Fold this protein.
Amino acid sequence: MTDPIIQDPPEATEEAQAATKAAVFNAAERLFALHGFQNVSVRDITAEAKVNLASVNYHFGSKDSLLFEIFRRRTSELNRERARMLHEAGGRHDGKPPVRDILEAYFAPPLRWASPDNDRRISVQFIIRARSEGTAEMREVLRNDVSHLARFADALAAARPDLPKEDVYWRLHFILGLVHNNRFAEFDRLHHLSGGVTREADVEALLRRMLDFAEAGFNA
Amino acid sequence: MTDPIIQDPPEATEEAQAATKAAVFNAAERLFALHGFQNVSVRDITAEAKVNLASVNYHFGSKDSLLFEIFRRRTSELNRERARMLHEAGGRHDGKPPVRDILEAYFAPPLRWASPDNDRRISVQFIIRARSEGTAEMREVLRNDVSHLARFADALAAARPDLPKEDVYWRLHFILGLVHNNRFAEFDRLHHLSGGVTREADVEALLRRMLDFAEAGFNA
DNA sequence: GTCTATAGATGGATAGAC
DNA sequence: GTCTATCCATCTATAGAC
């Protein structure tokens, strides 16, 4: 019955739609990172984003799909940054960077993102949470999508061709543990234990400490 | 109206009550460890334990109280075992054990408990989950109850009096990360990445690898 | 496309019979 | 003390008005 020529308003709508979707995305990432996946409801997200309750399902299909989309975007950004640094390290050393440079390419991106004045800080916390609280779908990806890690394993093996492959993998595993341990709660505990001596706010100093420890461990 | 002398049956009741409570405790620990805290309902627990739905509230007050009781029992058992090994290491070295013995006292208990044939395996998984999925009450305890860690920090400082205290704390922090990384999912990923070369089932070999890495890292 | 109202499902807790 | 039936809160997802 309605005139088929009359359609929705033009550009303005698209922009508004994109803005709503982005608002939901950012609010969800923030709340999930701060309070955990299960502790945040769709209602919390839409209230924070100041959009209507149905927006999550309209733009993302479901709460889980929204969660998964944030996860995919942030992990791929992080791994791309790591790959870039690894590639640059290779460029500085004829394609065979030393252990410390390889480790730095893995450590530095999440550390710098997590520094207090960086607006990606929240994304890092989200990713760390995904590792332990993620849905079955996310854990499936974490378990099976190891291509980005394979490049680091290969680089480490090339840097230490004398080391048995088995040792390379185990030590890489231990090194990954260092990164995953960078959670608010763990820093708080350390701060409490040390009587306030430790300051994780100094990102470059922390990076140096991590590299000293990991390099020595890897070359044990 | 009923005769006030007639009471509940004697000992049999106490035993049955204790058995019910234990059944709930064990079923809850198992399900929480396997599926996560938020993914297990009181209904799941009572079904698994083959007791009635009201048992959890009757014996423990609430789901959260049950969770907290399991957490307190298992962490105190684990820390007591670690303290015992640290004490024994001190006995072997005139009260000043070397770094490697200190680390072994921290690493060995959870690793041995987690070996496939040990019935404490499930308790270790429960404790690891508590660190990331625990209630605010549990995280409060984890953050503030650092007395068991203080003993390890003191021992490490005594073993390396030349090392600034700040370094001792940071390196201890990194070492703790190694232990927390011992989750099913992480081993799965490592297994996948390495093409099946790594076998975490060999507990003593894994312990040796962890000690090699951590000792070198600490002495970096 | 947005938003309200509500369906539909689940879970923690408890009252009350036995 | 045990167990069933049920209350009540909460959440995701969606239908339908505008």
Summary: Chain B touches chain A through 50 residues (CB under 8 Å).
